[in-house]
Amino acid sequence: MAIIDPFKDGLGRGWKVFGGRHAGAQPLPERISCDVAIVGSGAGAGITAELLTQAGLDVLLIEEGPLKTSSDFHQLEREAYPQLYQESAGRKTADKAINILQGRCVGGSTTVNWTSSFRTPDDTLAYWQQHFGLKDCTLEALAPWFAQAERRLGIGPWLAPPNENNELLKRGADRLGIRAATIQRNVKGCWNLGSCGLGCPTNAKQSMLVTTIPAALERGARLLVETRAQAFEHDGSKVRWLDCVPVATDGSAASDRTVRVSAKHYVVAGGAINSPGLLLRSKAPDPHNRLGHRSFLHPVVASAAVFDQRVEGWAGAPQTIYSDHFLGVDPIDGPIGYKLEAPPIHPTVFATTMAGFGLEQTRQLKQFPHTHALLALLRDGFHPQSPGGRVRLRDDRTPLLDYPLTAFVMDGARRALLSMAELQFAAGAREVIPTHELARSYRSWDEAKREIAALPMKPQLTRVFSAHAMGGCGFAGEAKLGVVQPNGQHWQLENLSVHDGSLFPTSVGANPQLSIYGIVNRLASGLTHRLTGRTVSLA
Ligand SMILES: Cc1cc2nc3c(=O)[nH]c(=O)nc-3n(C[C@H](O)[C@H](O)[C@H](O)COP(=O)(O)OP(=O)(O)OC[C@H]3O[C@@H](n4cnc5c(N)ncnc54)[C@H](O)[C@@H]3O)c2cc1C
């Protein structure tokens, strides 16, 4: 079956893409004027660009990553991580205890994400209403915005049977009497390859790369690639212009040229960590010391298990089964809860996430085809002892996240390792290996229970990672509680809005992409109306 690459066709028809080294690249201009300049091209940026261009606004998207499309995606980790991810998929928190996966390419993290789609949970929204004055963040008020995003992005039930990696989550949960259910995905005509994290080679994933960004380009939007929004020039109440710089594939400055962008309105959608980083570099007003604070990750711990049968966790749709059982054991503001999912497992990511070295690691890698993995997403941000992290700037002005793994978080990590081991043994595992430097391979649930209970749950010893950066530019009903207003507009800079995952005042408690699509859909429709008086909705 022929795979149509929308960019090949679109660039041929005159789509305006500047910078970078892709086929059809045009040189970066020195000065650009537009109605709205959007920083980023990921989840929040894509939705915003589609809506603004629908109202006839002249939109400019600025993306620091490269333009890579389905023709470039070869299902190879060695190509995907350096080309498509922030810091080659090796972005770390300041103490190097957490590895963070974030996209850095046209389409942002949506180009490489794993397609799980959940609406924002009701208890999360209730917490935002109560603690952050976000009165309109109710399930009912957001439902139409989610429904539109779901329609636009093909979000629906995954009807194919789960791969064995996910089936084992269901099997173990059933045997323990724990509820597990099917995850909705944003795909159309999915080939069930399992390489979503390496860029979808068939364009089945309805990422921003194949949906909203092409729609915006078709309506005349301009896109700068391999170009970083460096800093806003402002007078404390209004942005005057935005300076951008060309960057190399590894993120370093490619030249000392500056591209100056003048717009009537600016939308920051560089994702968590990067968006607060840009506003910190710009010395944006921050009278209540909120900028960069309350950055969340859903810190993740994982557990591998070896089965007699082949599992082949790299093959077939990732994350199609989940269990929220352990999010409901305690109240949302009690001991930290966690969501269980079965992630895709590819050799490089597996080898770098699993603990251990030498002969033991060789033994584990030899069993790779028989290996199953579970992960637990810890729901951070709802308890006083879970204030998340803080973004600050390195000497070279790039953003860095300090995220202390407190005893409170690590208590959840231990409980999660225990729950996953129990479930894996219930599913028939012959051995279970938690991702902890001092863990061994355990042969029974009794042994695992005793040993995991005694593991020192310390940063660096416990392997922690995250693909869900959120917060840092939180929205709130009062200026003292957040960086931006409930409509996304900056509390102090009147012609600047934030439209991405950095808006969330806590973690979501579910995979965040649909929360961003739905909430930004509402904010971007509102912005379009304020700028043009026109009502728009997702195509
Ligand atoms: C491997 C992986 C798997 C995931 N799986 C899922 C999943 O299954 N389900 C789910 O719900 N979520 C998943 N996520 C998370 C989800 O994709 C993100 O939460 C979401 O895309 C974030 O949207 P955003 O708009 O905040 O930022 P992003 O989508 O990350 O986009 C931000 C973009 O802005 C660019 N940028 C940043 N700073 C600048 C700057 N200064 N100048 C120019 N450009 C800049 C970045 O390069 C990036 O392309 C996954 C993420 C990853 C990395």
TrEMBL record:
Keywords: FAD, Flavoprotein, Oxidoreductase. InterPro entries: FAD/NAD-bd_sf, GMC_OxRdtase_N, GMC_OxRtase_C. It holds the Pfam family GMC_oxred_N. Residues 83-300 form the Glucose-methanol-choline oxidoreductase N-terminal domain. One of its GO terms (molecular function) is flavin adenine dinucleotide binding. Residues 384-519 form the Glucose-methanol-choline oxidoreductase C-terminal domain. Signal peptide: none annotated. PANTHER family: LONG-CHAIN-ALCOHOL OXIDASE. Belongs to the GMC oxidoreductase family. This is Oxidoreductase, GMC family. It comes from Methylibium petroleiphilum (strain ATCC BAA-1232 / LMG 22953 / PM1).
